[in-house]
Structures are given as C-alpha cells and as structure tokens.
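Reader question, answered in our methods column.
A reader sent in the components of a multi-part assembly and asked whether the whole thing could be modeled at once rather than chain by chain. We filled in our standard form and ran it. Here is what they sent:
COMPLEX SIZE: three components
ENTRIES:
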Amino acid sequence: MAHDAGGSGPPRDTADSQLFPRWATLAARLGLVSLVGVPAILLGLLMALQYTPYVTGQTLVRNQPVPFSHEHHVGGLGLDCRYCHGSVEKTRFAGLPPTHTCMTCHSQLWTNAAVLEPVRRSLAEGKPIRWRRVNALPDYVYFDHSIHIAKGVGCTTCHGPVDRMPLMRQAAPLTMGWCLDCHRQPEAHLRPENEIFAGHWTPPPDQRERGRELIRHYLIRTEHLTDCSICHR
Amino acid sequence: MSAGSVLSRRQAALGLLAAAISGGLSGCGEPEEEILPYVEQPERLVPGAGLRFATTLALEGYGRGVICASAEGRPIKIEGNPGHPASLGATDVFAEAEILGLYDPDRSRTIRQAGRPVTWQEFLAALLPRLEALEARGGEGLRLLTGPITSPTLLRLIAAARGRFPGLVWHAHAPIGEANARRGAELAFGRPVSMLSRLDRAAVVLALDADPLGPGPDQIRNGHAFAERRLARAGRTEFMRLYAVEPATTLTGANADHRLRVPPAMLRDVALALAAALGAPVPRPELAAKQARFVEAAAEDLRAHHGAALVLAGESLAPELHALVHWINERLAAPVEAIAPVFPAGAEGPMPLAALVEDMRAGRVDTLFILGGANPAYDAPADIDFLNACKQVRFAVHHGLHRDETAALCDWHLPAPHALEEWGDLRATDGTASLVQPLIRPLYATRATAELLGLLQGRLDLSAHAAVRETWAEGRTPEEFEVWWRRTLHEGIVEGSAAPRFDPPEPRLPQVPPAPAADGLVLVLRPDASVWDGRFANNAWLQECPRPLTRQVWGNAALIAPEEAEARGLNQGDVVRLEVGGRSLEVAVMPEPGIAPGVVALSLGYGRRRVGAIGEGVGVNAYVLRTTDTPWTVPGVALTPLGRRAPPVLAQEEQRLEGEARELLPVIPLEEVLRAAGDASRSEPPPTFYPEFAYETYAWAMVIDTTLCIGCNACVIACQSENNIPVVGPEEVEWGRDMHWLRIDTYRQEIDGEPHPGFQPVPCMHCEKAPCEPVCPVAASVHDQEGLNVQVYNRCIGTRFCQSNCPYKVRRFNFFGYADGQEYKNLGEPVVAAHFNPEVTVRARGVMEKCTYCVQRISAARREAKKENRPIAEGEVVTACQSACPTSAILFGDLNKADSLPSRLRQEPHHYKLLGHLGTQPRTTYLKRVRNPNPALEGDAA
Amino acid sequence: MSGSALREPPLPPGASYGELIGVVADPVLERGTGRPWRIAFAVTLLMTLGLGICIAWLFIQGVGIWGINTPVVWGFAIANFVWWLGIGHAGTLISALLLITRQHWRASINRFAEAMTLFAAVIAGLFPILHLGRPYRFYWLVPYPNTMEVWPQWRSALVWDFAAISTYIIFSLLFWYWGLIPDLATMRDRARSRAARYAYGVLSMGWRGSARHWHRHDALYRAMAALAVPLVVSVHSVVGMDFAASLMPGWQETIFPPYFVIGAMFSGFAMVVTLAILLRRGLGLEKVITPRHFDAMAKIVLAGSVAMAISYTTEWFTGWYGGERAELTHLGHLFTGAYAPIYYGMLACNVLIPQVFWLRAARRNLVTLFLVTILINIGMWLERILIIWNTLSHGHLPSMWHLFYPTFWDWATLLCSIGLFTFLFLVFVRIFPAVAMHDLNKRLYQEKEERA
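And here is the structure of the entire assembly that came back:
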C-alpha cells in the first residue's frame, strides 16, 4: 500500500546512484555521526579546560619589581612568615611588609645591590613598592587569614612550599571546589599550633585521626563551614 | 581587598564572550591586581582591620556625638556615641548621611576669586592689607556672618577678633533656629533661659505644634526618652499618653494617642483655653464642641498627673504663647530643666541677619566674612533682599562646602572642610561639650573656620587643631592636659561640661495678642525631614530617603487636607500657584489626611539653584513665600490651579488599611496588652511538609516594636550606609525600583474617625521556610546553619523568581548597574566609591539583593569569638538599623538563648508574625502598635 | 469528528495522486514568488533585524529597559515565552495526537503545523534567556561538572523548564524532519535545477521509497508520535508550575498545569487555523485544505474555549471559596482593578467570541475563522500578561502595590518576535512542501478504497 504512494512523481527517473557518487553514502553516514559527535567533543573539551592552570592560574609566577626570593629568606635564612606578613594572625589581610621592614636588614646588608634599588628608592621617595598580586581571589570572596591561622590551617596548605620558591608562585588552583575540599573535610589538613608556620609540612600517616582530634581541639563547627555565607556576602 | 562589583563591566563583556563561544569558561579575565604596602606603617593601623573614632557632628550648631568607623583610612560609617547625651548610642538620618556628604563630588575644591581658581597666597595678599586698614579704623565695616555657633573655640576666636577690631559686628543667621522659643523664655522669665523638656519623666504630654520626635538636634534624645515611657510590655503599667494639637502632621502627631488638627490661628485659642482650664486668669476663648472636649479632657489628664505632666510649644508659636506654656508648665510642676542658653544670647551674642543687610544696603559694610555654611542668598526671608545688598559690599568672602547661591554673590570663595576632616568642638542642647576630630586628611585644599578667624587676629599659622587645644588647655597644666586631651578624644565628650541646671524665676503670665485675622489659606512651613533647611540638598541618600508619612522622595509637595482637595477639585499631582504679597511659587498638591482644612503645608530646603548635580532643581523653594515676621505660618495665601500635573514621586502608593488588612499592622489599646499579660495568644505556625531544621549554633532573629517606631528613617540610611546600597534616582523610583533593603511601610487606619498612622520597618523576614529558596534555579537564595536566608550575589543569574515569590517583596533587583557603571548622575565619580564598606559586596547589574541581617557583622563577631574559643555573647552582634534606632524599636539577637531580647519579646502577648498564616515562619517578627487612649475621648470623632 | 470525517471526505473526489503532489510541490519548484510574498518577506526581514537591535540594546543596557519593577519583576518576556510556547504546542498535538487517534484529515495540515511548532518553540526558548539579569550565565541552569562544585537547584520549576523546552525543541525538529524525508525525495525527483536536486537529495538521505524504507519510516514515526503526547503535556505543565508552585495570590492553584496545557492547545489551534487560511490562499491549496478541515479545527477551538471558560470559573471559585484575604483582594482586583478592562477584553476574546463556532456557517466562513482565531491569540497573550500583572502588582502587602507600565522596548521585542516567526515561515513555504504529500496520497488511497 505504501510504496505506490511513495516519492515518485511523474516518471523522471533519477536514482541517487546517478545524482551522487558512490562515496556519498559513507560521507552522509559520517556527516550524521559528526553532527552529534563534534559538538559533544567540543563541549567536553571546554569543560575540561576550566580545570586547567590556563584558567585557574595555578603554578602562575609573576615578575616582581624586586625579585624577592622566599626560598632565600624563608628556606635559607629561616625568617618567620609573620616577620613580614605581620597582620596574618589579626586580620583577613596577611599584610605585606612596609618598605621600612625590608630596610631594617638591607640598610646593613647588600646596601648597594642593584636588585634592591627599587626598595631604596621607595624609602627615599616615600613611594610604595608596587608588588604584583600572585594569589588573587575574586572580590566577592571574603577570605580571612586570621581565622584560618587560628584554627590550624598552615600557610603552606594553600601557599605551597614557599621555602622552595625563588619567585612567588600560585600553588593552588584557588577554585571554589578547591576551597570546599578542605571546608568539607578539614581533618585532612589541620595542624597543631606549633606547626602552622612551618616552612614545609608533610601530613603524618595518621593525619585523619589527628585531624579529627584537632577539629575537637580547635572547636571547629564543621556543619557551618559549607554555608555560602561563610565566604560570600 | 576592596569590595569590587560582582562582575565589572569588562568582565561582563568577557563573560558574554565566553558564554557565546565557550559556554564553559567561568572565572577567566580576572584583572591583575597590585598590592601597595606602606613605606612607613602608621602606628595602630593594621591593614584589613577597621578603626573607630569618637567625634561630633553639628545640626543647627548643636553637637551630636558619634563614633565613626573607618576602613584603610576611609570613613565609611557613622554610629551613635553611647556616652554622648545628644546621641545615647543612636543616630539620625543627617548624621548617617554625612558619610556620603564627605565624598560629595560637587564639594568646592579650590579657592576662587570671581569664579577663577586662585592660590591661598593671592587671597592673603588681598586680605591682609584690608585688615590693616580696618584695624586702623577700629574694625569699622568689618562684619562676620555665620550660622548658629555653639563651639567654645569659635566663640573664643570671635571674641578675640573683636579684641582686635572693636567695630567688628557678628551676625548669625539660622533659617530654622529657635527665635520664638528664646523670646518666649525672655518674656516669661525676664532673661534668656533655655528649657530642656524631660520626656523621660513625663506621664502625660501635650504638644502644641511641637515636634520633639521630629527631625532636629534633639530628636535622638527625645526619641530615647519617649521610648523609655512608651514601653508596652506585659505587666508594665507605666505608659505615657501623648496629645498633639497641630495644623499639619508631625512625627509627634503621628505617634500621638489623640491628635487634634486645627488651623495655626486656633493654636492660640487652644493654648488659652488650656491655661484657663488650669486656672490662669485669661479670657476663655470660644471653641467648637470638638476642640473644647479635647482641651477639657487633656487639661483634666494633665492636672491629674501633676509633676509628670508636660506641655510643649512648637517653634511656630508666637513668643507670647511660649511664655504662656512656660506658665502652664510651672503650674503643672512639669519635668523641664532650665539652663543658661548654650547659644550665646544678649550682648556677646550675634546680631540678626536683617540688621546686616540693612547696613550692607547703606554701604556701611566694607568687608564681609560669611562662615560656617550660612547661605542667606538662598534661605533668607523673601523681604530681605540679600542679593542686591551684597553688591554694596566691597570685599565679600564666602566660606562653605559648596559653591552655593551665596558663593555666587561673593567675590571670594574659600572651600570649607567637611565635619569629618576638621578639628573643632561643639556643645549639645544640654550644654555638654565634645571634641570634633578629623577621620581623614582633608580631601581638598580646604581651610577650617578656626583658621580664618585666626587670620582676623593676624595669626596666619593658627591651625584648627591648635585653636581647639588652646581653648581647652586653659586652666590645665600641660601634663594633665595631655592626659585629659587623649581621654576626651577617646570618650567623645568633655566630662562635666553640661550646663548647670538652675531654678528659673516665676514665669510671668504674658499678654497674648489676638490672632491676626486673615482670609485665604494659611501656609505652614516646616523644616524638611531629609534636607532640613536645604543644607543636605545635595546628599543623594537623603533625597531618596522616603519622607515620613508622605513617603515622597526627591522633592516636596503642597500638602492639603483631603476635604480641602475635594472642595477645590484638586487631585494628587495637580500643580497649583501659591501666591501671597505679590510673591508666588508653583508646586504640586498632595492630599494628606493629617492636614487641617484651610492649611497648606510645605517643607523648606528645596529648589536649590546652586549646590550640585544631585540637589539642583529638586522640589520648589518655599523660602520665596517666607517673611521675617511670618517665618512659619504665612496667612492669606491664594491657591490657583494651573491645570498642569506633576505627580510627586512616592516610594509607597497605597497607605490605607481597611478590614482584614488591618492584621498587617494591628493597633491595639494598652488595656489589651495588660489584660492579655501572661496568656499565650501567639498562634503556632501552620503545619508544613518541609522537615523541621535544628539550628544548633545560633538562631538569629529580630523583633521590631511598632509602638516605639517613630518613623524617623535613621535605620533606613544606616542600612544604606552599611550595606553599600545604591541610589537610583527619581525616575527609577517612579518606575518602582528603589533599592532600600529596609523600608518603613506607613499605613493609616481609621480610629474614631481619625486617620491613625503607623510605621512598620520591613527588612528581610529571614523566613525559616523561605518561599524564595525552593524557586531559585541556581541555588543563589539559600539557608545557612544559623537560620539566615542568604543571597549569593555572585551565583545569582537574575531570574527574579525569588522576588516574584516573596510575599513580603523585600528583595531588590539591580535592573541597571546602579552601583556598577550606570550610577545616577555624578555618583559614579571615583571619589564617591570611597564610601563603600569593604566588608560588603557592591552588587553588579542583573543580580538580586536584600537585607542580610548585616551578615558581615555576624561573621566578624563569629570569627572573633572563634579565635577566643568562646560563643558570641548576647548583644555582641548589633545590626546597622538596630544601632541607629533612637527608640530601640529594632532588637536583634539569638533565639537559642532563652534570655536574649528576641526570645523574651516573642513571649509578649502582643507579639505577632507578619503574614504568619502563610507558614513562612519569619525570623523577623513584630510587636503590635499600642495606643494609650484617654477614656474620656474614646468613641468620639476626636 | 471522525464520524463526520467518514461521512464527508476532506479531499475532492476524482483527485489523482500526481495532481495532489503537483498542487503541493509546484508552488515551490515551478512557480516564482508572488508580489505579496516579497513584500511580506521584506517587512518581516526588517522586523527580524529589529529583534536583533532589541536584544543588542538589552545586553548593553540591562533588563531595566523594560517596564518591570520591584513588585512586578516579571513582565512581557515571561508572557511572550508562555504565549509562544503555547502556540508551539498545536503542531505536535495535531501530528501526534491526531495520528494516534487516526484522524487522517490531519494529513493536509500537520506539516506546516509542525513547522509552526518548531519556530514558535525556538522563539519561546529565547525569552527566558533574554529575561535573565545576567544572560551570559544562562548555562548555570545546566547540570555540568564545574570547578565551583555547585549544581542547579532541582526543586525549582525553572530548571525543569529548561530541560523540558530544550528536549521539546530537539524532538519537534526530529519529528518534523522525519516526516519530511519522503517528500524531500519527491522534491528531489521533481526538481529541475541540478542544485535543487542535490540539495533535496542530500536532505532526503537516499530515500528510495522501498517497502523497507516505508516500513521503518512508519514504525518510527508512530513511535515518536506516541512519545510526543506526554512530552507536550509535560512541557506546559512545568510552565504552569512556574506560577502554581508559589505563595502568591492568583498563582497558588492546583489547576494551573492542566489549565496551561489546554490554553496552549487552544491558542496553538487558533494559530494553525490562521496560518492554514493564509497558506491555502497564498499557495492555492484549495484542493488540499478544504472547508471540512476548517470545520473540524473550529470544533476543536470551540472545545478549547469551553475548557478555558471552565478553568477561569474554577479560578474564581477557589479564590472566593478559599477566603484568604490576599486571594479575595486579588479577585476583586481582577474585576475592578486598573487592569479590569484588559481582563474583560481577554474574557471576550477567549470565551465569548469563539462561541460563534456553534454555528456551522461560522465554522466554514474563512473570514469569520480568520478574525476569531486572531482575536483568540490576542486574548491568550492578554491572559498570560494578566496572570503576571494582576498577581505581582497586587501582592500580600498593600505597601508594595505598584502597577506595570510597558516601555517601547517591551512592545518592540514582542512585535519583532512575531516578525521573526513570520519570516521563518515565509522561508519555509518557499523551500519545503507545506503539506505532507505522502500522507495526503495515503489518505487519498484510503478514500478510494472506501469508495470502492
């Protein structure tokens, strides 16, 4: 019943074989597949891209007006983080050393090293040194250094082994997911008070147990840690 | 880390791009940031931690002590100073708005001569020789024009200047002022006395067109006292009764238990009738039955509360009536305290403006200094032709914040520093002195008033700082002074500086002249609740702050009685011409139920011609119809409709509450509270399918006592300042897009045939079962563990589903980038951005925002508490609105604490939930509005 | 209906297969574009550009260019969305529902009805995105793995809207294309120019009309039809949820989902009739689309309007019976408020006027049909905007009552979207056979059988 109603009008018989070459069938099939496949693959790539350093800025190193080396000052000389980042225990902002702090030593040491010229000029002209931010969070994220320090999150947990960084490097992806990893299970990262400022710190094998112990010790209320209002206002 | 926008324009563009091509790239294009540490870190300053300083702000020359918070050296928020008698920890709209005033881009920035910028040296070069010459003439022709001054330092410097120039005459001009009250006191007591009314000791108060609760230098103190006596709590019987007799609604009248609206002329008769009823040998005037009954009942009530009964006379009343009221208060042993006037009177006091202008016209004025923001070219009475008089002055210097109308007339203009940039001192209404200290180095090349007065003495190097220290160093050894100085700066008040109370002589009974007979309408002029006398006209926060009762923004309107409007066939927004004595203005009318028939009420302070982009051309200038002898009530005004329409811009269009709708703001008599004491009339929330949630740590809640809310708007501006709430401008408000997180819903319900207004502050309800949460497709509206309903701006994509489903409509949407690239007028200029609170995100276009219970303050308290391993203490978290409220009508705390304020107030019999029957289980709840009617006036159309 | 269908054959007696194919195919292949078509094309092309401008300005300035305000946060965008989506329902309903219920007269109208569906649905899908405050973040409605580790909020009707509509659009496209294949082959075979033959050839994917082809085509087509019906119902039900799953007076009603589906079908059918009349005239399809078809469709429209009447009364009753203050205020506002005149107009268009279809003459008079169906579509748009205006402008708190005033851009966007729709349709009728030829012949075959 069907085919006599079929796609045959007045008989001007042109079968596909004459209209199209042989390979057309294959081309059509491939075309159909790619019609679905290509967009799918593209989307997949885009989704993968957001996890890459290209987007997150992880491992990013910036050239600074003064090539300050944490490797030398922390790793080598063993300066305490708080010597320069003075407000890290008091406020949300860890603080950057005023030029004056640099000169406490460098008025005696390397007094005419070329690399330190910007520092001397800053003091002379009273103009601040323009450091370039390495670990940047969006403005709508309210991160507070002091509370993390107070509750046993060490510097290197987020900033990486600064004692091995000639120039400051963004150690973590600093994505929301990365923050949440720790806020969901802090026990994996908490340290006792005396190790918070340790230059580089490797979790002990029984970190989970210790971590849970520390959660009790620091009186951390974990259920509240994943509230949006913790970081966003 | 400064609080930037959720998404800058550039990022938005990038985002668009990303969405277009990728649809996946989020977070790309973060602009590279720089960090600039100090070279030399100032002591006490810790980057990232805010600082708070005590200082003092002036209104009408009187000081209100405040604590100012600053972030990284930027003043960002004003709060009350609990130690200061005129603040008691609270603020008013004007104090809160000074923050925006500081960063006003229209402020004058340079010294100018004939409009062209010049240097300080050029000014000195021109001035000093003149001063020499003047000194030779004994100062003949040297005049000083200021606003009201209470500052000990400035008074001292003026006196010193007089030392050098005996001929120097000081004139003071205050468009609002308190002239009638002063003359009244002199009439009564034979010498200058100022009477402090103590509402906190009053059980019955009758206000004769007086507005103690209205805007003014004493609003906070009075509001606080009022609240003490109007606390409706189960089992607490002490509750003030307030009567008001007035031609146009004031905040006092709005909060009165009984209100009588009479034309101004009738105030005299009421006062006399009252005096007569209290045994004064005065002719008892004829009163209509209604008035008579009212006066009778009030008099009876006053007499019954001897020692705690108080009558207040408004500034609009004639001096004789003030004197009469003093006599009445004496009779009632009313709680009033007499002090020597804080504002100097008599010989050492200033001369009036009229005298100055007269001399100017006569060419007797050679050199004129206009200091401290006096602006006669705008606000002088119409019969004083300052403009032409000014032409006669050879050397006129204007010193002020803006290049205003007066600056335009003066050859020289000097920019003045803002109150938060300047050293100084002020006295409060009760005489208490306090220091003014700068929160920030002057933004522009400004010169303090003290410096200029220093010049007059020839002390070119006198700084305001030095001048103030000189004043207070007197009679103190250097050592003890340093200690005193530090302590006083820290405390914010000078100990024991309050004016001594004394017993005034027996008040004389004055001869009250007959009321001037006049035909036509009577124009009642009022200081404005937002721009005061016009000095705040360029403050966008205040312009956009809905005026109490009318809820009008960005302008003023001629308020008339609804029956009057009907009789004249006028509708809201019809433009009319008001004409008197050949002078006229054109203004839109607005029917207002509180206005007496035959009266047109109009507020001063609008129609500024030169002040800045924000204030110029907003509203109409009522000073045009004002004369020296009719400062407050102008009789014989002709009203002619012009057939044009210019509807006023309103933040709320529907105010009537009828039938069941009254449940939204129930008004109940005091007995109901007393009777219901103990019983739990609070209904349980209706059943819900949603699971109950256990709030283990804290459960934040707010209770608002609508009995105490006097509708002063301080909370609204406080919220705006704390939470970076943008101004949208009149056009947008007209579209219905104002952004205030906290609004004061104003309702009127008929009680005994009189429209009884009620105020209901409405922040976010933070519903436990919030309708906004399940509808948001991206989970930008979510609940947190402490019961806060939080809005995540950076997650919001702007479907507006939450707002469409919010029964309280408390959410606000950024239809444009109001704070982010599409600001109103000049509010986008860089300097304005300095007022932003770094603890709160500045919201971008296209995101929803709303009240957060000041989550940034909760968070700060929580972090501090956690660092010290302790729970947040009761009262440690104070929301911005709560801290501003002069009557403590807004109370915030933790429901998990049984003894916290909200927990306790939720047990009150008159506690209720707004739209509670919807099952939203709001965390913000209310106490019903309690009246204390006089049984003698019950059921009467009073 | 099927009864009358048997009594009176929709196709003219004595029509031959080839003739019918000619009737449909020739306008596309043989005849050139007429003057009316070219004018319409030019106008609608401009309007389409206009829509582009509207959208550009929207993205530059923000949604504030529309009349929306704090209480009435939704406006034209949502109304347009619901309206277009409603129109986008009839096609699939006609094809699928009538196919399953063996209403073979559908053969003459299903093809362009499906095209209409496709275009309307696509335009409808545009509006929710334009309506967003931050449209460049629309993809956050899609559950995809992301570095924020946050997902859409499954309780929100909008998420399901997004899913339902995108599914519906894709489905409609496939359904429409699948039905086209045999006809594309026909076009290929009849086309004269080589380019056309290639184009149709590629699109018809080597259809040869073999029994195997026909068997598979039929099987899948029916299977899709069976899937289509529940899908259509689900889509507009979810749209109904957008309003029903709320606390607002006038929205919080269990009747909304079915009421929305009926409304959709109602407006959709009205639009089909409007288009059928225009096509019949424009392409000379008198032989193919006969008064019988109009009669049948008019009956469906009539049934729809009765159903709408029932829905409205149910709304009023529940509002009154519930007795909640806000509900009563809302009810009063419907009949006495600022929008009351529009509301009465809406009732007239949707309930009163369609009643003329009780008269057989009216059902077969093209002028009447045209006017009435146009009015119905206006009425249905008014219904959608009033659902938003009446509820949001008069919510629970009198203090927040504020009316909505449309701006130039509100109107421009609405009109230009209609322009885009017409534009697409004009293009469609010049490229594809506006009627399903093979279905038509199938139908003809059956009629021959019946006569025999």
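What stands out: Residues 1-17 of chain A have pLDDT under 50 and may be disordered. The radius of gyration of chain A is 30 Å.
Send us your own complexes using the same form.
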